[in-house]
Structure formats: C-alpha cells, structure tokens
Design a protein that fits this description.
By secondary structure, the chain is of the alpha/beta class. It is 24% helix and 21% strand. The protein has ten helices and 20 strands. Strands 1, 2, 6, 7, 8, 9 and 20 form a seven-stranded mixed sheet that branches. Strands 5-12-13-14-11-17 form a six-stranded antiparallel sheet. β7 and β8 form a beta hairpin. α1 runs parallel beside α10. The longest helix is centred in the C-terminal third of the chain and has 18 residues. The radius of gyration is 22 Å and the shape is globular. The chain starts with a strand and ends in a 5-residue tail after the last helix. Dihydroflavine-adenine dinucleotide binds next to α1, β4, β7, α8 and α10.
Amino acid sequence: PLPDYSPAVVIGTGYGAAVTALRLGEAGVPTVMLEMGQLWNEAGPDGKVFCDMLKPDRRSMWFKKRTEAPLASFLWLDIANHDIDPYAGVLDRVNYGGMSVYVGRGVGGGSLVNGAMAVQPKRSYFEEILPQVDADEMYGKYYPRANAGLGVNHIDEDWFETCKSYQFARVSRKAAQKTGLKTTFVPSVYDFDYMKQEEAGTVERSALASEVIYGNNHGKRSLDKTYLAAALGTGHVTIQTLSEVREIIQQQDGTYTLVVRESDALGNVLSTKHLSTKYLFLGAGSLGSTELLVRARDTGRLPRLSEAVGQGWGTNGNVMLGRANHVWDTTGSLEAGMPALGIDDWDNPTHPVFAEIAPVPAGLETWASLYLAITKNPERGHFAYDAASDSAKLQWTPDQGQPSIDAAKSLFDRINKANSTIYRYDLFGDTRAFENRFTYHPLGGLVLGDATDNYGRVKGYRNLYVMDGSLIPGSTGVNPFVTITALAERNIERVIAEDGVRA
Ligand code: FDA
C-alpha cells in the first residue's frame, strides 16, 4: 500500500526515472516510484506476458477499442489493426490534433515497447543542441555509464552477413551503397546472442516472432531487467503500479503532496490517495512530466513555474517511409524485429538524415524496405492547458512536419534514382509515401536550461526536478534513450552531491 510520506518520490519508471531511483537507492534514500501502467511479469492465458504484432489482444494497447499500429495498411488493406478490449495495455498512442505520440506504459516505460536501438549522437550535434552541457564529461563518463547500465551490446558482424533475419537490412544496405551512402551498425539492448539462438531454433523466438512494439517476451534488456532491478536491489526503492499522479501541490513547509489515482487494469478508479515527499523527481516522459507541470502552473498549484514550462517540444524529426524492392531483391519472410543498421547521412549540409533500416515483421515477403528517418526539423511545438479535459494539449500543426518530409525525400529520391525503385504508397492508410503524423521520439517540453537549471532543477521551486526526455530540446539526431539515460546520470549525480538529498 501507498505510504503517506516518502523522503523521495519518482514519477514514472522510464529511462530518466529508473536512473534516478537507482542512484537515490544507492545513496540510501527511501524512494517510492509511481507508475500509471502495469508491472509486466505475469503470463496471460496463452502462457505469454506480451502479445505479438500479428495477433494483438487487449495487452497490446492502452485503453483502445482497436489497435493503432504505425503501419496502418498493406496494399491499402486494413490488415494491421484489430479490435481489442480496452485495457491497461503496454503501448499508448496519444492522439493530439496534428500529431500522435507513441509511448510505453508499464514498469520500464518506453523500454518495454521500443526498438532497442542504443545510439549516441554525433558529438558535434550534441554540442549544438545542448551547448551548456560539458560534452567531454558526457562522452568520457556519462555515456559509458549509461551504456553499461543499459546492457548495450553489438551485433556479430559475420553473423549479420549470413543470417536470414537481416536479409532485409542487407537489401537496404545494397541500395544505399549503390547511392554512395554509408551505413552503420547500431548498438542495441536486445541480446544479439539470444537472437542468434532464435534463428538457430534453440530458444523460443521473440524478435524473430514479430514481437516489438507490444513488448518482447524474451531477449530484450528492458529497464525492469537492468536499472530498475538494480534499484529494487538496493532495498530502498519500491514501485507502485497502476498509480497515476494527477496533481502536485506544495505545502507551506516546502514539501510536495501528490494526488495519486489508483486504478485496476480495466480502468476502474479504486481510490484517490495523497503521498507527500521532500524531494520530487519527474520521470513521466516528455508528455507526462510536461503535462504535470503545465497543469500545476495553469491551475495555480505551482504559480511560480516559468513560461518555459510546456515549450520547446519536437518530434526528433521522425518520418516513416517505404520503398518498393525489385522482385529479385527478396527479404524473405523472417525479419528481426530489432533494427541493426542505419543509413548515416547526418553530415549532409542541407538535409541531415539518420535513417534506421526498419523491419516489416509481417511474417511474409512484402517486397518493401521500411525506414524510420530521423531528420533535423527545426520546428517546435508547445503544450497548452485545456481546462475542460484537465489536460495539456500538444500544439503542433501538420505544416510543421514538412521539413521532416523534405529532408527524407531528398535522401530517398537519390536512393530510388540510383536503384530504379519507387516509394510504397500503400502503407499508411491512404496514398501518401511519407508518414509524419506520428512520432516515437517525443522530446522537450521542460527544456534543460529553460524550464530548469543546467541540472534539471525546476526554476522557481526547491527540491523539484525533471529527469527524463522532456529536458531535451526536441531533437537528438539519433534514437534518444541513451542520451536521456546519460543526461539523467549526469544530473542525478550533481543533485545528490549538492542538494542534501537524504533520508
Ligand atoms: P518514458 O516514456 O520511457 O517513461 C515514462 C513513464 O512514465 C511511462 O511508463 C508512463 O506510463 C509513466 N507516466 C506518465 N505519466 C505518468 C503519471 N502522471 N503518473 C504516473 N506515471 C506516469 N528510442 C531509442 O533510443 N531507440 C529505439 O529503438 C526506440 N524505439 C522506439 C519505438 C517505439 C515504439 C517507441 C514508443 C519509442 C521508441 N524509442 C526509441 C523512444 C524511447 O523509448 C523514449 O525516448 C524513452 O522511453 C523516453 O524515456 P523517458 O524516461 O523520457 O520516459
């Protein structure tokens, strides 16, 4: 049961939250983590914890009547999505007017549903987006610490060349090379040794059985197996699930009281409780943490929060697209759900792009090459408090996504020309070639140095901290979780050393 008081509270259990809880626990600080999603450790009737992408059930998504998969169609057929019962499933798609944002729900946050790609940004780009952060320290100390804590591993490159699972990636690499582009292997938190055994048929398949965005039953080092397990192992950290923080109130003595809504997995509210704390850490992700502070400011709960709260949000330039492969360039029906290769054209002076070569884990030959392009889109959105729904609504207009398409088009037009191929127009529910109406990489809202000081301390309030992806100003140039983790490592080390955080 939820206590009335805990010296430290962490909201959320994603990357920033998990790092924070581990380091607080190691420092001996009693810490409660509050997570609105479930703990995913019990098998369902089929003997599995998670469902796959081909036969999704209620475990797949967060209170939806129908799944909302990123690839909406195939040959314009609505075969990717299925009706499901509303339930506290593991993947949420939060639909705002002009933009939909995918986020993980459960103990481990995004680590439960993501593609496991563990990529560090180019140092020069890191210095561009976060100039006030000491890059020597980041690249010398905190990125290595993050990679170790996350269990990042590298693919056996000889195996890559011969395995069935990455035939799709080799086909895409050939097309990139023909265009004069370079590709690069991406490190991962999916265990590549396990994947080898999956292909050999000696273990139960997960990444090779169309398991990704609705969770992996095996192979993936999600946060519940790394940082969070270590945090619980300190003996000072506990996790409360199905507990959503709704409000943050400050008391006269400076402590914080949280209004926590406890529900069951069917969405029935069981109770509303209060939990007080001296040190409050926000790790609810770009959407979650930003909403909590926008709501607190605009309802008058925390009136000294700055105007910067809710600003500086970006999509990391995400845009998805498919190319049609030549009939002789088959990928086979087996595609590893975890990407292992990216096209690196980030040094392109006009249109920098890092395009991950993404699988289509459909279990059949699709003659498609799929990509998630990360581009340098300078547009930024912001969150506005909506009193009627008591929520923060993302303000992002469709035209703000155009720079992402322009950049991706410039790269993939070249690839298509060099290979005499065309785009796929059947994948996104209508006839568009580029899908920029969703993002996997929400970043910003509580930007480091704007809404907070240079270490995530919220401006205007003491002992209130932001530790997650909302600190990053809208773009990282690569997949973001290693950067979120490393930045949290840096910030929590400073906060514990300087702010007197103790039991
Ligand atoms: P994160 O979103 O992980 O965690 C926030 C947690 O807080 C969630 O568990 C949420 O339920 C909880 N929460 C929110 N509000 C709350 C409240 N009010 N009360 C209680 N709990 C609350 N990145 C990458 O680097 N490589 C990759 O391969 C991919 N691939 C990918 C695929 C897909 C499908 C998705 C959705 C995302 C990715 N990402 C990715 C992105 C990556 O997962 C993402 O950047 C991080 O998970 C963000 O970490 P945070 O710590 O910011 O929050």
